[in-house]
Amino acid sequence: MRRGRTLRRGRVKGGPLWLLLLILVCGSAHAVPDAEAWEFWRGAGNRADVSHGLWQSLLDEFVVRGADGINRVRYRAMNEKARERLKSYIQSLAAIDPRTLTRAAQQAYWINLYNALTADVVLDYPRKKSILRMGRKLLALGPWDDSLIEIAGQKLTLNDIEHRILRPLFGDERVHFAVNCASLSCPDLANTAYTAGNLESLLDEQMHRYLGHPRGLRQTAGGFELSSIFDWYQVDFAADEKGLREWLAKRRPDLAAALRDKRKRITYEYDWKLNVAE
After folding, report:
1. Maximum pairwise Cα distance, the chain
2. How is the chain split into domains, by residue range?
3. pTM for the whole structure
4. Edge-to-edge strands, sheet with 11-13
5. Contact indicator for 210, 250 with CB cutoff of 8 Å
6. Which pLDDT value is given to residue 192?
7. What is d(CA 260, CA 262) in angstroms, rounded to the nearest whole number?
8. For residues 146 and 177, is the Cβ–Cβ distance under 8 A?
């Protein structure tokens, strides 16, 4: 695993006792990779006409809004024909060299690909209740380092897409509200496919939805409980906690005064239970 920051703070929910103990014991080995640019993928072309229609049809059919306000996925309803559509969509993206696309089309391409690959992984493990229990490697805590696709002669993992392409090459912290890790505390899997045309508005929509939901930001008696995303990836939002508070305050003006008050303690939590529609 590449150099990174350990997932050490905050409570982790959503798994059997043995899994939670394994996370605590192996915490030093399970880290969020740093954003290190894969230079092969740098650069942009002028093509923007990528078809995400197959992905949109799957989102329309299988993503539903739960009573708790969280988008869930009807994985169990995805039959062989639906799986074939998902595979066809992934293969259609693999046939494109994203370096020929405009920057906006590239960003949409990588976000959709990440989310489609994650859904495909979940379907490979129909009995698992958390993505932390999925993955090909022994004692793996998730599938993020599994090689899942080859594009332009390069084999890629989910970690490659997120930490070596999306984060360093685009420098947009809103990506954390777009890529979906198939877990309840993760920002929603958007029910609209990303495109070059809707990228900006959809990223903003996803960000505001998450910040407006308790799993993203919740005021408590003594301060605030935040998603662990803001701990793991604080560097993408601000240089330090003071900067993070300011970043949040600007996007939650209703809570701005309390967020800027350093006496209000910040804690972190994340629920890794699968975002499955029951």
Report:
1. 55
2. 4-54+78-181
3. 0.91
4. 11-13, 265-271, 223-227, 217-219
5. no
6. 99
7. 6
8. no
